[in-house]
């Protein structure tokens, strides 16, 4: 089974339409089973996609009140994919008074159920520190699987990561008897001890990067970007985690100019594994 996570930085990129096509080309080549995307944006002023067209795109409404607009990044991407994906999208907050920013999950198997909830104390749509977790259940090879997608705050931030992860644990607790994949941008560096990464690992999660038989350096931020403005090194802050130790064949940095084109200020993580 193949999984991909990417913080897309969508509609903030130059040559955005070209980069969507490049991302689609990479997905078409790799044929991922599960895709989790963060910073999936749509223009607040754009017209909505009608319900019939949405249904034809295999959209699953996690929230019936959420409006999918014509330039929703995930919706535009899906139109260029060669395989059929079931998908959902939820907003977390607005950005620059221009975009709804949210989370999207794409899966090749049907979505059985989905929900989302706040992980931040903040619940202000106009504040970028407002964070949510998107959770989707599907069935793969006859096995129920939960897919969680999140974009978190920083360890030392006023809306700190620890509290957000505690809330994540609460939200996922009812499903711990099933296989869970937790994908996303944790904004916490794997190599820094006694901060977010160690805190997550202390809760019993398995990092597919650590489990992988074949891996590279894993770094997904390699320059100064928004949120890491003073960064002068390479960071591993994007992850694919599981609640079980699985056979992981490989974990590779994706969309880095070698393994797929660079399409965002983040690089992606691609993992190939087997379900236990």
From TrEMBL:
Naturally occurring in which organism (per UniProt): Paenibacillus nuruki
The keyword Hydrolase belongs to this UniProt entry's keyword annotation: yes
Keyword terms: Hydrolase
Residue ranges occupied by any Endonuclease/exonuclease/phosphatase domain in the UniProt entry: 20-266
PANTHER family tied to this protein: ENDONUCLEASE_EXONUCLEASE_PHOSPHATASE FAMILY PROTEIN (PTHR15822:SF23), TRAF AND TNF RECEPTOR-ASSOCIATED PROTEIN (PTHR15822)
Cited CDD domains: RgfB-like (cd09079)
InterPro entries in the record: Endo/exonu/phosph_ase_sf, Endo/exonuclease/phosphatase, TDP2-like
EC number: 3.1.3.90
This protein's name: Maltose 6'-phosphate phosphatase
Sample GO molecular function, one term: hydrolase activity
């Amino acid at each position: 089974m193949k999984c991909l996570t990417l913080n897309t930085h969508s509609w903030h990129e130059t040559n955005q339409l070209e980069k969507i096509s490049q991302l689609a080309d990479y997905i078409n080549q790799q044929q991922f089973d599960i895709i989790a995307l963060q910073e999936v944006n749509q223009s607040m002023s754009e017209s909505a996609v009608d319900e019939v067209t949405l249904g034809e795109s295999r959209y699953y409404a996690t929230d019936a009140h959420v409006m999918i607009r014509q330039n929703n990044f995930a919706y535009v991407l899906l139109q260029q994919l060669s395989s059929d994906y079931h998908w959902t999208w939820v907003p977390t907050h607005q950005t620059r008074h221009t975009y709804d920013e949210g989370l999207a999950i794409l899966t090749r198997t049907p979505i059985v159920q989905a929900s989302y909830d706040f992980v931040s104390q903040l619940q202000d749509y106009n504040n970028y520190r407002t964070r949510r977790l998107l959770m989707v259940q599907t069935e793969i090879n006859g096995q129920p699987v939960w897919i969680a997608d999140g974009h978190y705050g920083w360890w030392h931030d006023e809306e700190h990561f620890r509290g957000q992860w505690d809330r994540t644990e609460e939200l996922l607790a009812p499903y711990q008897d099933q296989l869970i994949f937790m994908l996303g941008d944790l904004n916490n560096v794997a190599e820094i001890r006694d901060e977010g990464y160690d805190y997550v690992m202390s809760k019993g999660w398995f990092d597919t990067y650590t489990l992988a038989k074949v891996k590279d350096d894993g770094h997904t931020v390699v320059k100064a970007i928004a949120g890491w403005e003073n960064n002068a090194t390479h960071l591993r802050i994007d992850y694919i985690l599981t609640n079980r130790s699985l056979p992981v064949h490989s974990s590779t940095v994706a969309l880095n100019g070698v393994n797929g084109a660079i399409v965002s200020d983040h690089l992606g993580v691609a993992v190939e594994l087997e379900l236990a």
